[in-house]
Amino acid sequence: MIDIDNIDIIKNENYIYVYELMGENSIRLIHMFGKSPLCRVPSEINGTQVTELAPYCFSAKSLPAQLKDRVQNEVGIAVDMTELTDSYVEEIILPDSVKKIGRLAFYNCWNLRQIELSADIESVDGDAFMNCTHLSMLVLRGTPQTSSCLKQILAQISWLVRVSWVTEDSTIARACFFEYDQTYDEIGPAHIFKLNMNGEGFRARQSFNDRVFVWKQYDDTFEEAKAQESEQDLLDMALYRLIFPYDLEDEAKSLFTDYVKAHSQKLGSLLVKKRDVSLLERYLNLTDMDGQRLADAQVVTEMIAKAAETDWGEGSVILLRFKKKNMAVSRKNRFSF
User: Fold this and answer.
1) Domain tally for the chain?
2) How many CA atoms lie within 13 A of 274 on its CB side?
3) Which residue from 81, 159, 206, 321 has the least number of CB within 10 angstroms?
4) What distance in Å separates the CA atoms of residue 175 and residue 184, rounded to the nearest whole number?
5) Distance, CA of 90 to CA of 280 (rounded, Å)
6) Which residues, including other chains, have CB under 8 Å from residue 61's CB and lie 6 or more apart?
7) What pTM, to 2 d.p., does this model score?
8) Structural domain of residue 40, as residue ranges?
């Protein structure tokens, strides 16, 4: 329950912050208004650190009508300001100062695609991501070898989600966690039910030693996942591990490499569809255990055609240059019989 009398409101050029002082050195953020679907939560307000997101912080439920009227009366809600909630907000960046995410903090953020946050958040309360079914990317500032909040977060997300670990704007690792299902079986006349978890996505989410991610456990899920998951999702997992080989052992590298080679045509189509220049360039530079490029001439030629069909000019240029530099056939050999 919000104590309206203890709430402060402040407005700047881009945002309205509704917040509560939790002491001399701490602020709990209650609600935000902004001009863009990209939301940057401040590290401090009036010199005091923002350390916590209140329950329902990014949900319309967090702002009672009485409090919304007070916001309008005290600072005014300009016509270009929108509540950062529900179907409006698409990306949220949390500062390092935030240590706690309250219950149902992102409730009903249907269009939320990405959240960036510090890996060392201490607490993520229950159902924080309920109904955020389009959330497809978590960006963690930190390294996989350090203790993090990731296990708490993944326990609340059963759909397909990708995780990137970044340091100083550089991605050092990326993982793909498949969707899994929860079903209940009745096992007794007293209406006793057994919970079943179906899918390798659940097992991959258990790849932790306490709060530290364990890559070998994660990589070991791939063999079983091949019988259950889609080709597209499996290619994502394999490609991410090869491009960002953090703690990647030779056995797992061989497994991922063989899968990428066997599905190279599908991967080529997916990379063109993604239109991610960095991902494309990294793929083109991948080699197998013998130093041979994974992208062969046939695949690159097909990718050039698909890039042209979809008017991806930048991709076409990169692929053509790559083919000319690495796959050119000499005039002498071209006419040899």
Assistant:
1) 1
2) 16
3) 321
4) 29
5) 25
6) 104, 107, 108
7) 0.90
8) 1-135
